[in-house]
Automatic annotation (TrEMBL):
Catalyzes the formation of phosphoribosylamine from phosphoribosylpyrophosphate (PRPP) and glutamine. GO terms for molecular function: 4 iron, 4 sulfur cluster binding; amidophosphoribosyltransferase activity; magnesium ion binding. It is an enzyme of class 2 (transferase). The active site is at 54 (nucleophile). Its cofactor is [4Fe-4S] cluster; Mg(2+). This is Amidophosphoribosyltransferase. Its EC number is 2.4.2.14.
Amino acid sequence: MPDEVKSGTARLAYPPSGQAIGGLAPSEARFWTGDYYNEGNGQEEIFDKAKEECGVFGVFGHPDAANLSYYGLHALQHRGEESCGICSSEDGTFHYHRGMGLVKEVFDRERLGALKGDRAIGHVRYSTSGSSKLANAQPLVFKYRDGDLAVCTNGNLVNEPVIRRELEEQGSIFQTSSDTEVIAHLIARSPKDLVEAVKDAFARLIGGYAFLIMTKDRLIAACDPNGFRPLVMGRLGDAYIFASETCAFETIGAEYVRDVQPGEILVLDKNGLREERFAPMERRAVCAMEYIYFARPDSDINQINLHSSRKRMGRQLALESFVDADIVTGVPDSSISAAIGYAEQTGIPYELGLIKNKYTGRTFIQPSQELREKGVKMKLSAVRKVVEGKRVVMIDDSIVRGTTSLRIVNMLREAGATEVHVRISSPPFMNPCYYGIDTPNPKDLIANTKTVEEIRKAINADSLYFLSKNGLMEAVGGHENEKNRGLCLSCFDHDYPTKVQFELAKATSCSCD
C-alpha cells in the first residue's frame, strides 16, 4: 500500500520510494538518460523543440475505465514520455498506480487488472530540469475531510508561487513542487461543498490549465478562462470520456461531442452531466503551438483538423516565400504536413529527403560527448540518392535554439544537396511561455537575440523565412472576430493574454513540476 504523508489539511499519497520501475528493481533500471527511460528528457533532446508538458484522460461510467484510460494515454504519449499514471474508483475506493517511463512500460496486465471501477483519470508527463521524480507523477491522490481526491492537469499556473507562499504562511506543508498540489490545498481548506470549493480555487488561478478531478462519486473537468490548453469531451455508449486531444477518442472508439469551453466546469455524478461556469470567458487564447507542433495531426482542436491546418501553413509559407528548387522535404514527423502543403502550392515535388529512425529511444550505453554530438544522425538521416545534386527546400515547424537546424542543414549538404533553403511554418520563437510549454531561458532562444539573417548564417542555410503572424492566423482559421483569431501568440509577439509577474512566473515548468 502507498505511504501517506500528512500535508496540511490533506494527506498526499505516494508509492514507496523503493518501488520497482517497469518490472525492474531500482538498482537494475539504469538507462543512459538517468535512473529510468527518458529521465530529464527534453534537456538532452536531440531535436531542438519546445516541449508540451503533459496530457490528461478521463472516463466516467464505463466498467472498463482503467483499460480505456491505458489506451487513451497511449494515444497521448507524444504529450509526455517520462511518467504516467492512472487512478480508478470502485465503490468509493481508489486504486492507482504511477510510474516513470512510457505507458506500455509502467502498466502491464496485472497492474491494469488491479485498477477496478467504472471511472478513472490518467496522465502522461514530460519533465523539466530538476523535476525527474516519481513524487511529481500524476494523478496526485489526496485524502481530505470528504474522502479521497485525485487530480491531474495540463498547463501552468502563473501565480502559483504567490499562492504557495500564502498557503505555507498559513501552515500548509507541501510534499511536491507541483502546481497541482496547490489546487488540492485550496480545495481542502474551503468550508464549501466540493463543486463550490473547486470553483473558488479555480477563480484564484492565473494561467493556462485543463484539470480533471475525481472523488468517490464525481468527476470534474475544467479549462482556464482563456482556453490555453485543449480539453475535449466524448461519449462511448453511456460513458463520458475526456481527453487532451480527439485522437484518443479514435483509439477507443469514442465519439467526439464538443470542446470544453474556457472558464467552464463540467460535473459528472450519479445524476448525469452538469454544465456550469467558474469564470466568464476572457480573451480566447488557444496555444498556437498546439496547431503548429504539439498535437497529433489526426486530432482536432475547436473542430479544426491539425493536419489540414498545417498543410495550410505550408501553402501560406509558399505564397510568402517561394524559392526555386528541385525538391521539398519536411523534418519528420511534425513538419511533414506543412511540407506537403508547400509542395502542393509551388508544384515542387515533395520527397522523403529526411528519414527518422523510430527505434533509438532506449540505450544502455553511457555515451561520450562525441557520441552525443553525433546523436542527431542516430535519430535522423538524409537520403543521399534523393537530395544529392538537388536544391532542397527544408520545411520545419519551429526553431528554438537553432542547434538542430544547423545539424540538419549540414547533414543535407553532406548528402550532396547543392542548396538548402529553410522555411519555418511559424513566426520566430522569441519569448518564453508561462502557460505550460517547457521553453528555454530567453537568452537561449535564438530568435530572441538574433535577426533572421543572423539566424540564417548560424544554421548555414542558403535562405531562411519564417511564416508571418498574419499568415499563421489565416492558416489556422479559428474565430475571425476575436483577437489573434482566438490564438495565444505570446511566444512570437510577447503579448501575454494574462498578467504575468515575470520575476515570479515559471517559464520552464508546468503544473506537473
